[in-house]
Design a protein that fits this description.
With 752 residues, the chain is of the alpha/beta class. The strands form 7 sheets. A 6-stranded mixed beta sheet has the order 10-16-15-14-11-13, sandwiched between helices. Strands 1-3-4-6-9 form a 5-stranded parallel beta sheet. A 5-stranded mixed beta sheet has the order 19-27-26-21-22, with no helix packed on it. The radius of gyration is 29 Å and the shape is globular. Bound molecules: alpha-D-glucopyranose.
């Protein structure tokens, strides 16, 4: 008997009450068991960068079992290394099975629409392609080791402000091309066992009741076969949700809603077949999960810590390194001043449901001491209070240390009280007491290095001109302290690249005018132009562009070749080039490939990221990099056709080091084999009708030749005026010759 046959048999033996019971949890983290049928509960828990399992998961207590705290998504996305993310997924699966967890509630892949988003630390990027690549790798890594993922939060959960009620108004193209396409990639390429619906409304309908998203798109278009679980407490009307495609309500128990499901079936308001399908989906995942748990292996916690350290180091982005301040040369240091509260009390993850109880925690100061000892004397001064209060004494003490030292390393960033699930940031500045500290230290110590621990872009303009080096260390997980020391002393050559733009000022950000919304609605007024798409289109120079990051070495690019210059909209394209390490030390380069249409019927971003590769190169080593583009990489979504369109025309293939630095480019021409015809309507212009073969034939059969000539003569402004008119106006100008009935017949004939 196949699994599905077994499931069908179970469903046939279930009572209506038992079926309804499976539609909600047994407790906060367990799904429902049905002892009579031998169906155990599943244990699900957060989160995206570590297993956050309560000691007593049957309660809502928040004291969590120790687990490896990996770098958060904002960090790992900056590694631009899907293989690394996959390894993290595999490690998380091992820890899940150690604790009996069947489904891990991650990855969170919502886009960083505004740097103010309180959960941006938990999300990957402003770009849907990079997001999709990272999410796919995570889900593959987790699930191939037998633990389910929960792809979240579907969809457009891009802020914390009023997150459980806000209504995100997003036009169809923006929704498809920007906020859904990362989910689409992961669902199609990694097949997550579950998807978690978002709290918020999307165009007026709650994520938990949005059948357009949960059924039409997720299941019917993308082929999702798992089950949809609500975000915790996201369920609104349980029966409406079930019909829309919400299979499992969490947390449980929800006896009243289970009852409502039973009564809806009994009253004929809910087709039992819909309930059966939900139960089938749930049982399919349950059996997958039970199977997955069979391959437990002992967790190598040290190996996981080492992986966390490697991942953190791979994710850190060297933003500034004037006069080769970094890496620190131990033989050139007598005293090193380590400054900042975060050096002793590391800021290594974000606040909220993803917060892990780390099995161990590297202290940056200790790691720096270990790396520099015994040759270098390392001093410490807290420099600021985490509370944000000013304390001139702390600054004075830090300045004294900095003045005496060869180099000062200042740890700054965003504390939990500023950046967390549940609330957004009011601005993107660092806490004022940290800014004052950085400026005071830089005034006495020209060799000042700033290390940042934050989950999303921060403004640096007040102080960045005064310091020669800045390392973006993100929220780097439990091993972040060791990773920072590895980078500072050159044990690891930084290779991270920004997965989000750092604007000069918040007001430059495209969402500035509309974030976070008002009166219960947030308008995605910037449309497609999120992140670099906006800065490009507007010609606004950011502080640091998407894809940016420095290295301790240098890379040269040459020999761009395309597999063809002419292709059809059904062909793939291979792009190859050679990258050489022309510096003194080994390093990794992230080759980025953007596609730029020369023209298009609809407005489009200047260019969009469509492929990338991270390559390791020894000094002097050259490697050929090959990247593949598929037809969809040239497409945009056209609501007029409710489909993705590859328009005939010329496109630039841009090989870049960041969104602001193209190093090689070549053009291709695409021939469209699919003819796109928009149905002619009464509002279509006469020009549209004349440019359409059938439309023209119909007009020729109805209008006198001299009138047609008037419309089409290209050198008269009269023609220009009339041909722009919607066809329906011909009735008004035909002196009775053309009636509404004629018009309806013409439209039917033209579209037949
Ligand atoms: C939270 C979060 C979600 C998390 C869930 C369970 O509200 O939005 O990401 O997985 O509830 O903690």
């Amino acid at each position: 008997m196949t699994v599905q046959e077994k499931i069908a048999k179970l469903i046939s033996e279930m009572t209506l009450e038992e079926k309804a019971a499976l539609c909600s949890g047994q407790g906060p983290w367990h799904t429902q068991a049905i002892q009579r049928l031998g169906l155990p509960a599943m244990l699900v828990t957060d989160g995206p960068h570590g297993v956050r399992l309560a000691e007593k998961p049957e309660t809502l207590e928040w004291n969590n079992r120790p687990a490896t705290c990996f770098p958060t998504n904002a960090a790992v996305a900056s590694s631009w290394d899907p293989q690394l993310v996959k390894e993290i997924g595999q490690a998380l699966a091992a820890e899940c099975k150690e604790m009996g967890v069947h489904v891990l509630l991650g990855p969170g892949i919502n886009l960083k629409r505004s740097p103010l988003g309180g959960r941006n630390f938990e999300y990957y990027s402003e770009d849907p392609y990079l997001t999709g690549q990272m999410g796919t790798a995570f889900v593959q890594g987790l699930q191939e080791r037998g633990v389910g993922a929960s792809l979240k939060h579907f969809a457009a959960n891009n802020q914390e402000f009023e997150r459980m009620t806000i209504d995100a108004h997003i036009d169809e193209r923006t929704l498809r091309e920007i906020y859904l396409s990362g989910f689409e990639q992961v669902v199609k390429e990694a097949k997550p066992w579950t998807v978690m619906c978002a709290y918020n409304r999307i165009n007026g309908v709650y994520g938990s009741e949005n059948s357009y998203l949960l059924t039409d798109i997720l299941r019917e278009e993308w082929g999702f076969e798992g089950f949809v679980v609500s975000d915790w407490g996201a369920t609104e009307d349980r029966v409406v949700g079930l019909k829309a495609g919400l299979d499992l309500e969490m947390p449980g128990p929800a006896p009243a809603n289970d009852r409502r499901i039973v009564e809806a079936v009994q009253r004929g308001e809910l087709d039992e077949a819909v309930l059966d399908e939900t139960v089938r989906r749930y049982l399919t995942v349950l059996f997958q999960a039970l199977e997955g748990q069979k391959t437990k292996e002992p967790v190598d916690w040290d190996a996981h810590h080492a992986l966390a350290r490697r991942a953190a180091a791979e994710s850190m982005v060297l933003l500034k390194n004037y006069d080769q301040t970094l890496p620190l040369q131990i033989d050139q240091l007598e005293e090193l001043a380590v400054i900042g509260h975060f050096a002793m009390t590391p800021r290594f993850q974000g606040g909220g449901s993803s917060k892990v109880n780390p099995r161990r925690l590297d202290i940056p100061l200790e790691e720096i001491r270990a790396a520099a000892a015994p040759a270098v004397r390392v001093t410490y001064a807290p420099g600021y209070l985490e509370s944000g209060e000013a304390d001139p004494q702390l600054i004075a003490e830090a300045v004294d240390n900095a003045r005496r030292a060869s180099v000062a390393v200042v740890f700054a960033g965003l504390p939990d009280r500023i950046e967390s699930e549940g609330y957004d940031r009011p601005h993107i500045n660092l806490p004022e007491n940290q800014v004052q500290l950085i400026e005071a230290v830089a005034r006495v110590q020209p060799r000042t290095v700033v290390v940042l621990n934050n989950g999303s872009a921060v403004a640096m303009t007040p102080w960045i001109g005064s310091v020669p080096a800045v390392l973006e260390a993100w929220l780097p997980g439990q091993a972040g302290g060791g990773a920072i020391a590895d980078i500072l002393f050159g044990k690891v050559n930084p290779s991270g690249r920004l997965a989000e733009t750092f604007p000069m000022t918040l007001r430059d950000n495209p969402s500035y005018l509309n974030f976070p919304g008002e009166n219960g609605v947030v308008r995605y007024g910037e449309g497609l132009f999120v992140g670099y798409r906006y800065y490009d289109k507007k010609g606004i120079r950011p502080l640091f562009p998407f894809g940016y990051g420095l290295s301790y070495t240098k890379f040269a690019y040459e020999g761009l070749e395309l597999s063809c210059q002419e292709l059809k909209d059904t062909d793939s394209l291979t792009v190859s080039l050679t990258v050489t390490n022309v510096g003194e030390v080994a390093g990794k380069e992230v080759v980025q490939l953007y596609v730029r249409p020369h023209q298009s019927r609809l407005v489009r971003p200047e260019k969009e990221l469509k492929a990338f590769a991270k390559v390791y190169l020894e000094p002097g080593q050259a490697k050929q990099v090959q990247l593949q583009l598929q037809p969809r990489d040239f497409a945009y979504y056209d609501p007029a056709y409710r489909d993705w369109v590859v328009e005939e025309g010329d496109y630039d293939i841009l090989v870049a080091k960041s969104a602001a630095e193209t190093v090689l480019s070549a053009a291709v021409h695409i021939e469209a084999t699919r003819q796109w015809r928009r149905p002619l309507t009464r509002d279509s212009s006469i020009k549209d009708w004349m440019n359409d073969e059938k439309g023209r034939q119909v007009l020729q059969s109805v209008l006198p030749p001299e009138q047609l000539e008037m419309f089409m003569s290209s050198d008269s402004e009269l023609a220009a005026m009339f041909s722009a008119m919607p066809i329906k106006k011909l009735v008004s100008f035909s002196q009775g010759r053309l009636t509404e009935e004629h018009l309806e017949q013409m439209i039917a004939a033209a579209n037949s």
